[in-house]
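Inverse folding, one chain.
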Protein backbone atom coordinates (compact mmCIF):
# COMPACT_ATOMS: atom_id res chain seq x y z
CA UNK A 1 0.00 0.00 0.00
CA UNK A 2 1.34 3.42 -0.95
CA UNK A 3 1.57 6.12 1.71
CA UNK A 4 0.14 9.55 1.00
CA UNK A 5 2.79 12.21 0.59
CA UNK A 6 1.67 14.01 3.78
CA UNK A 7 0.22 12.03 6.62
CA UNK A 8 -0.12 12.71 10.33
CA UNK A 9 0.79 10.45 13.23
CA UNK A 10 -2.90 9.86 13.90
CA UNK A 11 -2.81 7.49 10.93
CA UNK A 12 -1.12 4.10 11.65
CA UNK A 13 1.18 4.43 8.65
CA UNK A 14 2.20 7.94 9.59
CA UNK A 15 2.79 6.85 13.19
CA UNK A 16 4.94 3.98 11.95
CA UNK A 17 6.98 6.26 9.72
CA UNK A 18 7.43 8.77 12.54
CA UNK A 19 8.53 6.07 14.99
CA UNK A 20 11.04 4.61 12.55
CA UNK A 21 12.46 8.05 11.88
CA UNK A 22 13.53 8.23 15.53
CA UNK A 23 16.12 5.48 15.04
CA UNK A 24 19.49 6.64 16.30
CA UNK A 25 18.05 9.47 18.36
CA UNK A 26 19.73 9.71 21.77
CA UNK A 27 17.78 11.17 24.68
CA UNK A 28 19.40 12.92 27.62
CA UNK A 29 18.28 10.14 29.97
CA UNK A 30 18.17 6.57 28.70
CA UNK A 31 20.14 3.32 28.82
CA UNK A 32 23.05 2.69 26.47
CA UNK A 33 22.19 -0.34 24.33
CA UNK A 34 24.33 -2.31 23.92
CA UNK A 35 26.08 -1.30 27.12
CA UNK A 36 29.47 -2.02 25.55
CA UNK A 37 29.02 1.13 23.44
CA UNK A 38 29.13 3.36 26.54
CA UNK A 39 31.73 6.12 26.43
CA UNK A 40 33.56 8.23 29.03
CA UNK A 41 34.08 5.17 31.20
CA UNK A 42 36.06 5.05 34.47
CA UNK A 43 39.80 4.67 34.01
CA UNK A 44 40.84 1.15 33.14
CA UNK A 45 37.34 -0.17 32.33
CA UNK A 46 37.20 -2.21 29.12
CA UNK A 47 34.04 -1.33 27.15
CA UNK A 48 33.54 -5.05 26.51
CA UNK A 49 33.14 -5.58 30.28
CA UNK A 50 30.35 -3.01 30.67
CA UNK A 51 27.02 -4.65 31.52
CA UNK A 52 24.88 -1.60 32.30
CA UNK A 53 25.06 2.08 31.47
CA UNK A 54 22.10 4.38 32.02
CA UNK A 55 21.31 8.01 32.80
CA UNK A 56 18.42 8.63 35.19
CA UNK A 57 16.75 12.02 35.09
CA UNK A 58 15.08 13.85 37.94
CA UNK A 59 12.02 11.86 38.98
CA UNK A 60 13.28 8.80 37.12
CA UNK A 61 14.14 5.27 38.22
CA UNK A 62 16.09 2.25 37.04
CA UNK A 63 16.55 -1.37 38.06
CA UNK A 64 19.20 -3.88 37.03
CA UNK A 65 20.39 -7.35 37.98
CA UNK A 66 24.13 -7.48 38.62
CA UNK A 67 26.33 -10.58 38.86
CA UNK A 68 28.58 -11.24 41.82
CA UNK A 69 31.86 -9.33 41.57
CA UNK A 70 30.51 -6.62 39.30
CA UNK A 71 31.25 -2.97 40.02
CA UNK A 72 28.62 -0.25 39.93
CA UNK A 73 29.55 3.42 39.74
CA UNK A 74 26.73 5.89 40.46
CA UNK A 75 27.67 9.42 39.41
CA UNK A 76 26.00 12.68 40.40
CA UNK A 77 26.45 14.30 37.01
CA UNK A 78 25.48 17.90 37.78
CA UNK A 79 25.89 17.91 41.55
CA UNK A 80 22.27 17.96 42.74
CA UNK A 81 20.98 14.39 42.46
CA UNK A 82 19.65 12.16 45.24
CA UNK A 83 20.09 8.46 44.53
CA UNK A 84 17.69 6.40 46.60
CA UNK A 85 18.97 2.81 46.51
CA UNK A 86 17.64 -0.58 47.58
CA UNK A 87 19.12 -3.99 46.83
CA UNK A 88 17.79 -7.56 46.90
CA UNK A 89 19.50 -10.95 46.78
CA UNK A 90 18.60 -11.69 43.16
CA UNK A 91 18.36 -15.47 43.62
CA UNK A 92 16.30 -15.15 46.81
CA UNK A 93 14.58 -11.73 46.66
CA UNK A 94 12.87 -12.24 50.01
CA UNK A 95 16.33 -11.30 51.33
CA UNK A 96 16.86 -7.59 50.95
CA UNK A 97 18.74 -4.54 52.19
CA UNK A 98 18.31 -3.92 55.91
CA UNK A 99 19.36 -0.37 56.72
CA UNK A 100 18.96 -0.82 60.48
CA UNK A 101 21.40 -3.76 60.50
CA UNK A 102 23.72 -1.91 58.11
CA UNK A 103 24.00 0.86 60.70
CA UNK A 104 23.92 -1.27 63.85
CA UNK A 105 26.43 -3.93 62.88
CA UNK A 106 28.99 -1.37 61.70
CA UNK A 107 28.51 0.99 64.66
CA UNK A 108 28.11 3.84 62.21
CA UNK A 109 25.22 5.65 60.51
CA UNK A 110 27.42 7.41 57.96
CA UNK A 111 28.27 5.66 54.71
CA UNK A 112 31.59 5.94 52.89
CA UNK A 113 34.41 3.87 51.44
CA UNK A 114 34.68 0.51 53.19
CA UNK A 115 31.10 0.46 54.48
CA UNK A 116 28.91 -2.54 53.69
CA UNK A 117 25.25 -2.64 52.70
CA UNK A 118 23.91 -5.62 54.64
CA UNK A 119 20.87 -7.80 54.13
CA UNK A 120 18.32 -8.86 56.72
CA UNK A 121 20.21 -12.18 56.89
CA UNK A 122 23.50 -10.58 57.93
CA UNK A 123 25.08 -11.00 54.52
CA UNK A 124 26.88 -8.41 52.40
CA UNK A 125 24.94 -7.33 49.34
CA UNK A 126 27.20 -4.45 48.29
CA UNK A 127 30.51 -2.98 49.44
CA UNK A 128 31.32 0.70 48.94
CA UNK A 129 34.76 0.68 47.30
CA UNK A 130 35.10 4.42 46.65
CA UNK A 131 33.22 7.58 47.55
CA UNK A 132 34.05 11.08 46.35
CA UNK A 133 30.81 12.63 47.60
CA UNK A 134 31.16 12.21 51.37
CA UNK A 135 27.54 12.93 52.31
CA UNK A 136 24.85 10.24 52.36
CA UNK A 137 21.81 9.29 54.42
CA UNK A 138 20.74 6.04 56.09
CA UNK A 139 17.94 7.48 58.23
CA UNK A 140 15.20 9.24 56.29
CA UNK A 141 13.94 6.86 53.61
CA UNK A 142 12.21 8.26 50.55
CA UNK A 143 9.19 10.38 49.68
CA UNK A 144 5.55 9.30 49.45
CA UNK A 145 2.65 10.47 47.32
CA UNK A 146 1.06 12.30 50.27
CA UNK A 147 4.28 14.09 51.18
CA UNK A 148 4.88 15.23 47.61
CA UNK A 149 1.27 16.31 47.22
CA UNK A 150 1.63 18.51 50.29
CA UNK A 151 4.97 19.96 49.21
CA UNK A 152 4.76 20.21 45.43
CA UNK A 153 1.04 19.96 44.72
CA UNK A 154 1.46 16.58 43.01
CA UNK A 155 2.96 13.22 43.93
CA UNK A 156 1.64 10.57 41.56
CA UNK A 157 3.88 8.43 39.40
CA UNK A 158 3.05 10.14 36.14
CA UNK A 159 2.78 13.75 37.26
CA UNK A 160 5.42 16.47 37.55
CA UNK A 161 6.65 15.40 41.02
CA UNK A 162 6.71 11.59 41.29
CA UNK A 163 7.47 10.18 44.72
CA UNK A 164 10.26 7.77 45.58
CA UNK A 165 8.16 5.01 47.10
CA UNK A 166 5.98 4.57 44.02
CA UNK A 167 9.00 4.80 41.74
CA UNK A 168 10.63 1.96 43.68
CA UNK A 169 7.45 -0.08 43.32
CA UNK A 170 7.52 0.40 39.53
CA UNK A 171 11.14 -0.82 39.50
CA UNK A 172 10.38 -3.88 41.62
CA UNK A 173 7.28 -4.76 39.59
CA UNK A 174 9.52 -5.38 36.58
CA UNK A 175 10.95 -8.33 38.52
CA UNK A 176 7.73 -9.68 39.98
CA UNK A 177 8.12 -7.94 43.35
CA UNK A 178 5.62 -5.74 45.15
CA UNK A 179 4.88 -3.52 48.12
CA UNK A 180 5.81 -6.07 50.77
CA UNK A 181 9.24 -6.49 49.12
CA UNK A 182 10.24 -2.83 49.44
CA UNK A 183 12.64 -2.15 52.34
CA UNK A 184 13.89 1.19 53.60
CA UNK A 185 16.41 2.70 51.20
CA UNK A 186 19.64 4.61 51.61
CA UNK A 187 20.09 8.00 49.94
CA UNK A 188 23.36 8.73 48.19
CA UNK A 189 24.65 12.27 47.59
CA UNK A 190 22.41 13.95 50.16
CA UNK A 191 23.74 13.95 53.74
CA UNK A 192 21.93 14.04 57.08
CA UNK A 193 23.63 14.61 60.43
CA UNK A 194 22.32 13.47 63.80
CA UNK A 195 22.63 16.20 66.44
CA UNK A 196 23.26 15.73 70.17
CA UNK A 197 19.54 16.11 70.93
CA UNK A 198 18.60 13.49 68.32
CA UNK A 199 17.35 15.97 65.74
CA UNK A 200 18.40 15.66 62.11
CA UNK A 201 20.21 18.35 60.14
CA UNK A 202 19.98 18.18 56.36
CA UNK A 203 23.45 18.66 54.87
CA UNK A 204 22.43 18.47 51.25
CA UNK A 205 25.03 17.74 48.60
CA UNK A 206 28.51 18.62 49.88
CA UNK A 207 30.47 17.56 46.82
CA UNK A 208 29.73 18.75 43.32
CA UNK A 209 29.28 17.69 39.70
CA UNK A 210 30.92 14.37 38.90
CA UNK A 211 30.97 13.00 42.44
CA UNK A 212 30.52 9.24 42.51
CA UNK A 213 30.04 6.20 44.68
CA UNK A 214 31.46 2.89 43.47
CA UNK A 215 30.10 -0.39 44.81
CA UNK A 216 30.96 -4.06 44.43
CA UNK A 217 28.28 -6.77 44.31
CA UNK A 218 29.06 -9.50 46.86
CA UNK A 219 26.12 -11.66 45.77
CA UNK A 220 24.05 -11.64 42.62
CA UNK A 221 21.97 -8.57 43.38
CA UNK A 222 18.96 -6.71 42.07
CA UNK A 223 19.66 -2.99 42.42
CA UNK A 224 16.85 -0.42 42.22
CA UNK A 225 17.56 3.32 42.10
CA UNK A 226 15.24 6.33 42.18
CA UNK A 227 16.31 9.93 41.64
CA UNK A 228 13.89 12.13 43.59
CA UNK A 229 14.36 15.06 46.01
CA UNK A 230 15.35 14.12 49.56
CA UNK A 231 12.50 14.26 52.07
CA UNK A 232 14.32 16.95 54.10
CA UNK A 233 15.06 19.13 51.07
CA UNK A 234 12.92 22.23 51.76
CA UNK A 235 13.36 23.92 48.39
CA UNK A 236 9.95 24.68 46.88
CA UNK A 237 10.92 23.41 43.43
CA UNK A 238 11.13 19.68 42.69
CA UNK A 239 14.90 19.45 42.21
CA UNK A 240 16.90 16.37 41.23
CA UNK A 241 19.55 16.53 38.51
CA UNK A 242 20.60 13.48 36.45
CA UNK A 243 22.47 10.42 37.66
CA UNK A 244 24.58 8.01 35.67
CA UNK A 245 24.81 4.31 36.55
CA UNK A 246 27.64 2.32 34.98
CA UNK A 247 28.34 -1.32 35.87
CA UNK A 248 31.03 -3.64 34.62
CA UNK A 249 32.15 -7.20 35.29
CA UNK A 250 34.85 -7.74 37.89
CA UNK A 251 36.41 -10.42 40.09
CA UNK A 252 34.73 -11.52 43.32
CA UNK A 253 36.14 -10.48 46.67
CA UNK A 254 39.45 -12.09 47.61
CA UNK A 255 40.00 -13.64 51.06
CA UNK A 256 42.53 -10.93 51.93
CA UNK A 257 40.42 -8.02 50.66
CA UNK A 258 40.95 -5.06 53.00
CA UNK A 259 37.26 -4.35 53.44
CA UNK A 260 36.48 -8.02 54.11
CA UNK A 261 38.98 -8.12 56.98
CA UNK A 262 38.63 -4.52 58.19
CA UNK A 263 36.69 -5.34 61.39
CA UNK A 264 35.40 -8.44 63.18
CA UNK A 265 31.88 -7.45 62.12
CA UNK A 266 32.89 -7.14 58.46
CA UNK A 267 34.63 -10.51 58.49
CA UNK A 268 31.60 -12.20 60.03
CA UNK A 269 29.27 -10.66 57.43
CA UNK A 270 31.50 -11.86 54.60
CA UNK A 271 31.70 -15.32 56.13
CA UNK A 272 27.90 -15.40 56.22
CA UNK A 273 27.90 -14.38 52.57
CA UNK A 274 30.42 -17.05 51.60
CA UNK A 275 28.37 -19.69 53.40
CA UNK A 276 25.41 -18.68 51.24
CA UNK A 277 27.55 -19.00 48.12
CA UNK A 278 28.22 -22.66 48.96
CA UNK A 279 24.53 -23.38 48.37
CA UNK A 280 24.82 -22.06 44.81
CA UNK A 281 27.62 -24.09 43.26
CA UNK A 282 29.48 -25.84 46.06
CA UNK A 283 32.93 -24.96 47.43
CA UNK A 284 34.92 -22.21 45.67
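Residues assigned per position:
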Amino acid sequence: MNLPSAIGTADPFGAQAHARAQAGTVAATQPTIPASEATALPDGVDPAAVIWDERIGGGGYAVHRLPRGSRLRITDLDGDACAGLVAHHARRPEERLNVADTVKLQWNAYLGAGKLLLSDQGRVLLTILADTAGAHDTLCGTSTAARNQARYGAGDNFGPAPNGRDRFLLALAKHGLGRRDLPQNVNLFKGVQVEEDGSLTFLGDRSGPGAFVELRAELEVLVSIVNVPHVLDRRPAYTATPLRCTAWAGPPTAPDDRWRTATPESLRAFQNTEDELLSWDGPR
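The chain has one domain: 51-279. Helices lie at 12-20, 99-104, 145-152, 164-173, 264-281.
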